[in-house]
Amino acid sequence: MKQDNTELFERMPVSKAVVALIVPTVISQLITVVYNMADTFFIGQVGDPNQVAAVSLCMPTFVLLTSLANLFGIGGASLMSRCFGRGDHAKARRIAAFSVWTSAGIALLYGVLLYGVRGSILPLIGANEGTYTFCSQYVFWTVTIGAVPTVLNQELAHLVRSEGYSRQASFGMALGGVLNIILDPIFIFSFRLEIAGAAIATMLSNLAATVYFLLLIRYRGDTTDIMLHPRYYTLGQHIPREVLLVGLPSSAMNMMAILSNVTLNKLMVSYSNEAMAGMGVAKKVDMMNFAIATGMSQGVLPLIGYNYAAKNFKRMLAAIRTTFLYSLTVAVISSVLLFTCAGPIVQAFINDAATIQYGQLFQRVICITGPCIAVTMLAITIFQSVGKKVQPLVLSLLRKGGLDIPLMLLFDRMFGISGIVWAAPASDLIATLAAVALFIPFWREVSRELEGKSDGRAGRRPVVS
Fold first, then answer.
1. What is the pLDDT of residue 48?
2. Residue 391: CB partners within 8 Å, gap ≥ 6?
3. Which of 26, 73, 204, 262 has its CA 20 to 30 A from that of 323?
């Protein structure tokens, strides 16, 4: 790891270090949201509802790749940042090699198997006579051909960020997003490939971002611990267990989000297509809140993990306080804007009176717990950064799947369509209360350790569980 990033982790003023890490990460997350919206927008211009439906139907197969990238990317980044804090660069190199090669192998296998059994899988996720061919085309390019670059693009961003290079990591992520927006209209309209063109654009964008990261790693040479040579690959030193258990909460959240969205869609569509469309717009807009919260929490992960392992608890606690203040402030401002401007925002997506009425109501309900999301996501990341396994998994499952699905079913029976919408804020509020309850003992434990060090006593290192 370059010496100038030791300055960032150890000596730079905490507020400046936090900003240097979170701002690029937030920007890259927002660009990812924008390009996801643009993808749907351009395909929609073709005028074929079957192609638009096919993209939505294939989304779960694509989200699984993000889940895989988070499993190895966040798990590997957390473990590497703690190795840097202890000065154990040899283990960090092995962690990087294990994470990259294992995830690439699984992604390749997943892509081939999915295409081989598409005749059975695609109908299960909703493909019918009108959408099957389009789904098959989209899956071929984005998952079968594009699985490995899609996973490595996101995973390498996490690993690069673990060394403190947040700006470079975010540039790589943003590169893929911007390139996808540029290539979409070219392949869809100029080459007349329609949905296949959108899929090819997505695959090429992720491939370009992956190539960027590989060139960045090669350029940095001996100054990086992200070593990709197979000789560094190992299943020893408890590396697989640590990487998988720490990365599991983020991966599980992606998986449960799929089940949550499927449940939400089935309940909404039972009322009306306008309600379904309104909820779709509201959920798209709410992705902005989630992207900001995710970017701020993931950006600060290496700073917390490094100082925890180095036992610099004073700096670690200061980083947590600063990030909490920034995250909560931005989340409150964002939620107020989304609430007060709900009508114009929804109308920008669609000009149908019934859909706008549903959409602005749903958006106002969903956005009120934006600050709760910020608190919960930061708590999950803090626990992951110090190597905790149980707490982040519990919070991830509470936030998605564990609470919102049962509440949607219950509130639907009790209150009808408005009850379905209130299930998400209710689950976010409960998850936040659980996050605070789990975080307070950890904060007190680290604070006691800090007091012990300041008194000159030999402190007991907080238990990594």
1. 79
2. 379, 380, 383, 438, 442
3. 73
Nearest to 43 by CA among 178, 136, 180, 149: 180
The CA distances from residue 161 to 76, 171, 184, 305, in Å, are 11, 11, 28, 12
Joined tokens for residue 299 = 């950006």
Token representation of residue 156 = 């390498």
Chunk the chain into consecutive blocks of 10 residues (it has 465) and report each block's average pLDDT, rounded to whole numbers. 72 94 90 75 78 78 91 95 94 97 98 96 84 94 97 96 93 92 95 95 96 96 93 96 93 85 79 77 82 91 95 95 95 93 82 83 92 95 93 91 92 92 94 96 92 61 42
Q: Cα torsion for 198, 202, 205, 211, to the nearest 10°?
A: -140
Q: What are the C-alpha distances in Å from 464 to residues 14, 36, 119, 245, 442?
A: 24, 37, 45, 12, 11
pLDDT at residue 463 in the model: 42
Tokens of 255: 């998986």
